[in-house]
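Hi all, posting the design record for the shared folder.

TITLE: backbone redesign
STEP: 1 of 1
STRUCTURE INPUT:
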Protein backbone atom coordinates (compact mmCIF):
# COMPACT_ATOMS: atom_id res chain seq x y z
CA UNK A 1 0.00 0.00 0.00
CA UNK A 2 1.15 3.53 -0.75
CA UNK A 3 1.05 5.62 2.42
CA UNK A 4 1.52 9.38 2.34
CA UNK A 5 2.09 11.03 5.71
CA UNK A 6 1.99 14.76 6.30
CA UNK A 7 4.93 15.65 8.49
CA UNK A 8 5.89 18.71 10.55
CA UNK A 9 9.20 19.42 12.26
CA UNK A 10 8.20 22.60 14.07
CA UNK A 11 9.02 24.80 11.07
CA UNK A 12 7.77 23.28 7.84
CA UNK A 13 5.19 20.78 6.56
CA UNK A 14 5.92 18.17 3.88
CA UNK A 15 4.54 14.86 2.67
CA UNK A 16 6.62 11.70 2.95
CA UNK A 17 5.78 8.57 0.99
CA UNK A 18 6.07 4.96 2.16
CA UNK A 19 5.41 1.70 0.37
CA UNK A 20 4.52 -1.10 2.76
CA UNK A 21 2.81 -4.48 2.95
CA UNK A 22 -0.53 -4.17 4.76
CA UNK A 23 -2.53 -7.17 5.95
CA UNK A 24 -6.31 -7.05 5.64
CA UNK A 25 -6.83 -6.96 9.43
CA UNK A 26 -4.25 -4.28 10.24
CA UNK A 27 -5.33 -0.97 11.70
CA UNK A 28 -3.99 2.42 10.70
CA UNK A 29 -2.15 2.47 14.01
CA UNK A 30 -0.44 -0.81 13.17
CA UNK A 31 0.54 0.64 9.79
CA UNK A 32 2.03 3.66 11.55
CA UNK A 33 3.90 1.33 13.93
CA UNK A 34 5.35 -0.56 10.97
CA UNK A 35 6.51 2.67 9.37
CA UNK A 36 7.96 3.89 12.62
CA UNK A 37 10.08 0.77 12.88
CA UNK A 38 11.93 2.11 9.86
CA UNK A 39 11.43 5.82 10.41
CA UNK A 40 12.20 6.34 14.08
CA UNK A 41 11.50 10.08 14.16
CA UNK A 42 7.84 9.80 13.04
CA UNK A 43 5.59 11.21 15.80
CA UNK A 44 1.98 10.19 16.53
CA UNK A 45 -0.07 9.54 19.64
CA UNK A 46 -1.49 6.28 20.99
CA UNK A 47 -1.87 4.68 24.39
CA UNK A 48 -4.64 2.14 24.88
CA UNK A 49 -4.82 0.68 21.33
CA UNK A 50 -8.45 -0.21 22.07
CA UNK A 51 -10.65 2.90 21.50
CA UNK A 52 -10.65 3.97 25.12
CA UNK A 53 -8.05 6.70 25.70
CA UNK A 54 -9.15 8.88 22.75
CA UNK A 55 -5.65 10.08 21.87
CA UNK A 56 -5.09 8.57 18.41
CA UNK A 57 -7.52 10.65 16.31
CA UNK A 58 -5.96 11.54 12.95
CA UNK A 59 -7.20 12.39 9.46
CA UNK A 60 -7.08 9.64 6.84
CA UNK A 61 -8.18 10.37 3.28
CA UNK A 62 -9.80 13.53 4.62
CA UNK A 63 -11.87 11.89 7.35
CA UNK A 64 -11.17 12.02 11.10
CA UNK A 65 -10.87 8.52 12.55
CA UNK A 66 -9.38 6.68 15.50
CA UNK A 67 -6.17 5.07 14.22
CA UNK A 68 -6.45 2.10 16.58
CA UNK A 69 -10.04 1.32 15.58
CA UNK A 70 -9.93 1.72 11.82
CA UNK A 71 -8.59 -0.87 9.41
CA UNK A 72 -6.24 0.50 6.76
CA UNK A 73 -7.93 -1.54 4.05
CA UNK A 74 -11.29 0.11 4.80
CA UNK A 75 -9.85 3.59 4.24
CA UNK A 76 -7.68 2.87 1.18
CA UNK A 77 -8.58 4.33 -2.19
CA UNK A 78 -6.69 2.79 -5.12
CA UNK A 79 -4.44 1.09 -2.55
CA UNK A 80 -3.39 4.46 -1.14
CA UNK A 81 -3.97 6.29 2.13
CA UNK A 82 -3.13 9.87 2.97
CA UNK A 83 -2.56 10.44 6.68
CA UNK A 84 -2.63 13.96 8.13
CA UNK A 85 -2.96 15.61 11.53
CA UNK A 86 -6.55 16.58 12.42
CA UNK A 87 -7.92 20.01 11.56
CA UNK A 88 -8.71 22.79 13.99
CA UNK A 89 -5.88 22.15 16.39
CA UNK A 90 -2.27 23.37 16.49
CA UNK A 91 0.15 20.78 15.15
CA UNK A 92 3.02 20.13 17.55
CA UNK A 93 4.91 17.56 15.47
CA UNK A 94 3.92 15.29 12.57
CA UNK A 95 0.51 13.82 13.61
CA UNK A 96 0.59 15.10 17.19
CA UNK A 97 -1.72 18.05 17.90
CA UNK A 98 -2.42 20.25 20.90
CA UNK A 99 -5.21 18.76 23.07
CA UNK A 100 -5.36 21.59 25.60
CA UNK A 101 -8.81 22.66 24.34
CA UNK A 102 -10.34 19.81 26.39
CA UNK A 103 -9.16 21.32 29.66
CA UNK A 104 -10.24 24.82 28.58
CA UNK A 105 -13.68 23.53 27.56
CA UNK A 106 -14.19 21.80 30.91
CA UNK A 107 -13.26 24.99 32.78
CA UNK A 108 -15.27 27.40 30.58
CA UNK A 109 -18.37 25.19 30.75
CA UNK A 110 -18.01 24.07 34.37
CA UNK A 111 -18.37 20.43 33.44
CA UNK A 112 -18.15 18.80 36.83
CA UNK A 113 -20.52 17.61 39.54
CA UNK A 114 -21.96 20.14 41.89
CA UNK A 115 -22.76 17.90 44.78
CA UNK A 116 -23.17 17.91 48.51
CA UNK A 117 -22.35 14.31 49.20
CA UNK A 118 -23.73 12.73 52.33
CA UNK A 119 -21.06 10.16 53.15
CA UNK A 120 -23.30 8.43 55.68
CA UNK A 121 -25.46 6.84 52.98
CA UNK A 122 -25.22 5.44 49.47
CA UNK A 123 -25.79 7.78 46.53
CA UNK A 124 -28.41 5.56 44.97
CA UNK A 125 -29.43 5.76 41.32
CA UNK A 126 -31.95 3.48 39.62
CA UNK A 127 -31.11 1.67 36.33
CA UNK A 128 -33.73 3.86 34.61
CA UNK A 129 -32.05 7.03 35.90
CA UNK A 130 -28.69 5.81 34.60
CA UNK A 131 -30.21 4.97 31.22
CA UNK A 132 -31.03 8.63 30.58
CA UNK A 133 -27.39 9.67 30.20
CA UNK A 134 -25.52 6.33 29.99
CA UNK A 135 -24.69 6.64 26.28
CA UNK A 136 -23.20 10.10 26.77
CA UNK A 137 -20.73 8.73 29.34
CA UNK A 138 -19.15 6.65 26.56
CA UNK A 139 -17.43 9.80 25.24
CA UNK A 140 -13.65 9.25 25.25
CA UNK A 141 -12.77 12.90 24.47
CA UNK A 142 -11.12 11.99 21.18
CA UNK A 143 -12.47 15.31 19.78
CA UNK A 144 -13.19 13.75 16.35
CA UNK A 145 -16.56 15.55 16.43
CA UNK A 146 -14.87 18.85 17.28
CA UNK A 147 -12.29 18.49 14.49
CA UNK A 148 -15.07 17.93 11.92
CA UNK A 149 -17.82 20.26 13.21
CA UNK A 150 -18.89 22.67 10.45
CA UNK A 151 -20.31 25.29 12.83
CA UNK A 152 -16.77 25.91 14.04
CA UNK A 153 -15.75 27.00 10.55
CA UNK A 154 -17.77 30.18 11.09
CA UNK A 155 -18.30 30.49 14.81
CA UNK A 156 -15.25 30.44 17.05
CA UNK A 157 -17.45 30.85 20.14
CA UNK A 158 -19.24 27.56 19.56
CA UNK A 159 -17.99 25.21 22.28
CA UNK A 160 -18.14 22.13 20.04
CA UNK A 161 -20.23 18.93 19.90
CA UNK A 162 -18.62 16.86 22.67
CA UNK A 163 -18.93 19.77 25.09
CA UNK A 164 -22.73 19.71 24.75
CA UNK A 165 -22.75 15.94 25.12
CA UNK A 166 -21.00 16.54 28.44
CA UNK A 167 -23.64 19.13 29.37
CA UNK A 168 -26.30 16.53 28.58
CA UNK A 169 -24.49 14.03 30.77
CA UNK A 170 -24.76 16.34 33.81
CA UNK A 171 -28.19 17.85 33.12
CA UNK A 172 -29.78 14.39 32.97
CA UNK A 173 -27.80 12.81 35.82
CA UNK A 174 -30.11 12.67 38.86
CA UNK A 175 -27.09 12.93 41.21
CA UNK A 176 -26.02 16.35 39.94
CA UNK A 177 -27.31 19.03 42.30
CA UNK A 178 -26.66 22.07 40.10
CA UNK A 179 -29.76 23.89 38.88
CA UNK A 180 -30.51 22.43 35.44
CA UNK A 181 -31.63 25.72 33.89
CA UNK A 182 -28.45 27.37 35.20
CA UNK A 183 -26.40 24.75 33.30
CA UNK A 184 -28.45 25.38 30.17
CA UNK A 185 -27.94 29.16 30.48
CA UNK A 186 -24.17 28.55 30.54
CA UNK A 187 -24.52 26.23 27.53
CA UNK A 188 -26.36 29.07 25.71
CA UNK A 189 -23.48 31.46 26.42
CA UNK A 190 -21.18 28.89 24.80
CA UNK A 191 -23.23 28.48 21.65
CA UNK A 192 -26.01 25.96 22.39
CA UNK A 193 -28.17 27.50 19.64
CA UNK A 194 -25.33 27.91 17.14
CA UNK A 195 -25.24 24.29 15.94
CA UNK A 196 -26.07 24.21 12.22
CA UNK A 197 -27.20 20.58 12.35
CA UNK A 198 -24.75 19.33 9.71
CA UNK A 199 -24.65 16.00 11.61
CA UNK A 200 -20.94 15.50 10.96
CA UNK A 201 -20.46 14.84 14.70
CA UNK A 202 -22.77 11.83 14.44
CA UNK A 203 -20.98 10.51 11.36
CA UNK A 204 -17.47 10.58 12.87
CA UNK A 205 -18.01 9.62 16.50
CA UNK A 206 -16.26 6.28 17.17
CA UNK A 207 -18.62 5.66 20.09
CA UNK A 208 -21.83 6.29 18.12
CA UNK A 209 -22.74 9.28 20.25
CA UNK A 210 -25.16 11.71 18.61
CA UNK A 211 -24.04 15.11 19.89
CA UNK A 212 -26.39 16.86 17.45
CA UNK A 213 -29.34 15.13 19.17
CA UNK A 214 -27.94 15.95 22.60
CA UNK A 215 -27.84 19.61 21.54
CA UNK A 216 -31.44 19.42 20.28
CA UNK A 217 -32.59 17.82 23.54
CA UNK A 218 -30.90 20.53 25.61
CA UNK A 219 -32.55 23.20 23.41
CA UNK A 220 -35.94 21.51 23.86
CA UNK A 221 -35.48 21.61 27.61
CA UNK A 222 -34.45 25.29 27.70
CA UNK A 223 -36.99 27.05 29.94
CA UNK A 224 -39.16 23.99 29.56
CA UNK A 225 -38.71 21.84 32.65
CA UNK A 226 -39.24 19.13 33.80
CA UNK A 227 -36.17 17.96 31.94
CA UNK A 228 -37.05 15.30 29.43
CA UNK A 229 -35.22 12.97 27.04
CA UNK A 230 -37.24 11.93 23.97
CA UNK A 231 -38.07 8.24 24.20
CA UNK A 232 -37.23 7.96 27.89
CA UNK A 233 -39.90 10.22 29.24
CA UNK A 234 -42.28 7.97 30.93
CA UNK A 235 -39.99 8.79 33.88
CA UNK A 236 -39.86 12.20 35.51
CA UNK A 237 -36.86 12.41 37.77
CA UNK A 238 -36.62 16.07 38.69
S1 LIG B 1 -24.53 18.88 13.99
FE1 LIG B 1 -23.99 20.73 15.09
S2 LIG B 1 -22.54 20.07 16.65
FE2 LIG B 1 -22.70 18.40 15.15
S3 LIG B 1 -21.00 18.77 13.75
FE3 LIG B 1 -22.80 19.78 12.87
S4 LIG B 1 -22.76 21.90 13.63
FE4 LIG B 1 -21.31 20.69 14.87
S1 LIG C 1 -18.65 12.67 21.32
FE1 LIG C 1 -17.65 11.00 20.16
S2 LIG C 1 -16.36 12.04 18.64
FE2 LIG C 1 -16.90 13.53 20.18
S3 LIG C 1 -15.21 13.51 21.64
FE3 LIG C 1 -16.77 12.10 22.43
S4 LIG C 1 -16.22 10.10 21.62
FE4 LIG C 1 -15.07 11.59 20.44
S1 LIG D 1 -4.91 4.44 21.15
FE1 LIG D 1 -6.44 4.87 22.67
S2 LIG D 1 -8.19 5.40 21.48
FE2 LIG D 1 -6.71 4.79 20.00
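Okay, here is what came back for every position:
SEQUENCE:
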Amino acid sequence: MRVLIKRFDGKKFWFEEFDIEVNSDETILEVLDKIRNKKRDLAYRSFCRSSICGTCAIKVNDKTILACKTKAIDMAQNNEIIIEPVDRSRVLRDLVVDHSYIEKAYKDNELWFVDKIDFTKENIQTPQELKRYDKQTDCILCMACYFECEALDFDKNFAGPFVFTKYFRFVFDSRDKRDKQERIELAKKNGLYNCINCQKCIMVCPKQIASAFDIKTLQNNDKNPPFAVAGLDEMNFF
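COMMENT: The radius of gyration is 20 Å.
Let me know if anyone wants the other runs.
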